[in-house]
Hints:
The protein is an alpha+beta fold. It has two domains: 5-127, Aminopeptidase; 153-334, Aminopeptidase (3-Layer(aba) Sandwich). The protein has nine helices and 15 strands. The protein has helices at residues 37-41, 54-63, 109-120, 140-144, 183-191, 217-220, 260-280, 282-292, 312-320, and strands spanning 5-11, 17-23, 28-31, 67-74, 77-87, 92-100, 129-135, 149-162, 202-205, 208-211, 224-228, 236-245, 248-256, 299-306, 332-339. Strands 3-4-5-6-7-15-8-14-13-12-11 form an eleven-stranded mixed sheet, sandwiched between helices. Strands 1-2 form a two-stranded antiparallel ribbon. Strands 9-10 form a two-stranded antiparallel ribbon. The structure holds coenzyme A. Coenzyme A binds next to strand 6, helix 3, strand 7 and helix 4.
Amino acid sequence: MLTRKVLKLISSRRGCQRLFFIKTASVNCRRAILEDFAGVVNINPNVLRGRDYVPARYDRIITDPNMSAYVAEVDNKIVAFACARLLDGGRTFLLLSGRVHVSYQGQGIMGKLVRHIKGRHSNNSNILYESFVTDGGNPLLSQVSQNSSEVLTRRVHCFAFPLHDIPLDALKLHGTQISTPTQEHLEKLMSENNCRLFPGGRLIVDWIPLRTDPQNVPLMIKTTHFHTDKSPEQDCLSFGSSYPCNIGLAYNLDIYGNHPESLRAHLHAHLLKIAHNVQRSREYCCDVVDKAHGGNPVNVHLLVYTCMTVDTAILQTLHKLGFPQMEYPVKTQIVMEKSFEKE
Ligand SMILES: CC(C)(COP(=O)(O)OP(=O)(O)OC[C@H]1O[C@@H](n2cnc3c(N)ncnc32)[C@H](O)[C@@H]1OP(=O)(O)O)[C@@H](O)C(=O)NCCC(=O)NCCS
């Protein structure tokens, strides 16, 4: 019996109209494996406006014991992909990296894949919440938001500049004491219930929405992280993660805190880190990034995520370094959450 039957009109390659009947009963959902790499990256090369992290991190996604990745196939062709990850000590089920081939969108395929993935977790009685992160303009938001609540909204600032243009001499820390917190230090910061830094006890690190739970620290420790705490006002914590993608070297910088001097020091420290990594690993940049761009100069595509009130300090700092803010369609990053509904 058909569970769902959807009629869709799409344009064929020849430009004429064709009728497609996609029956979700004929969609096969299964665990993704390393060998599915090509099928998965070919689903949609424009996810996240060319900033997709899945191609660069596919092996890690498949082999990470805390993640489970799934594909949906129609006629043995991979048409959709999504992953699940448990967070907050297993209390929260996060769905991420979802995408459906453009010819199959709007036909219930992601809905079927999501139900399949949740079904695989239905015996886990520890799971209380399900969440996902998206951007303010994503159409998915209106689809999923009816029974979910917005639990965190962050501002997105975009800067793009050539990798080799980072002005090392200008990146002075101006005496600001900046440190790389240890695991124990991060655990302490997470258990302190610091509402000024983390309103509602929430944060996002590299697009992963988290509660300020010390059990999430192993995930934070994998990033480039800095802390300043000369005084309570100057308290600032930041996390940076990079990966090569279609539009260059993507760098996600999540900053918590709003003291202008601290913000400047954190930005400088992350830019130094990017430049240092480039120098230290020419192979990484030249082979993976430069080659992927046919020898053209590689851009750093920096997205800085801050609380909604932070603006001028970030903009001024990067402007002074010669990196003006870029117009970018994504202005906000939003975490949605609801009670975990078993399938
Ligand atoms: C967004 C996208 C994945 C939706 O896929 P789709 O097959 O067109 O979606 P469907 O027809 O199944 O309708 C959406 C369904 O998926 C569910 N869904 C999709 N993503 C979800 C998520 N992250 N969490 C929970 N549910 C989700 C919706 O609730 C809805 O469920 P329903 O069938 O029970 O109503 C697809 O349009 C796409 O690939 N877009 C480009 C990539 C992208 O923007 N990804 C999302 C980044 S946040």
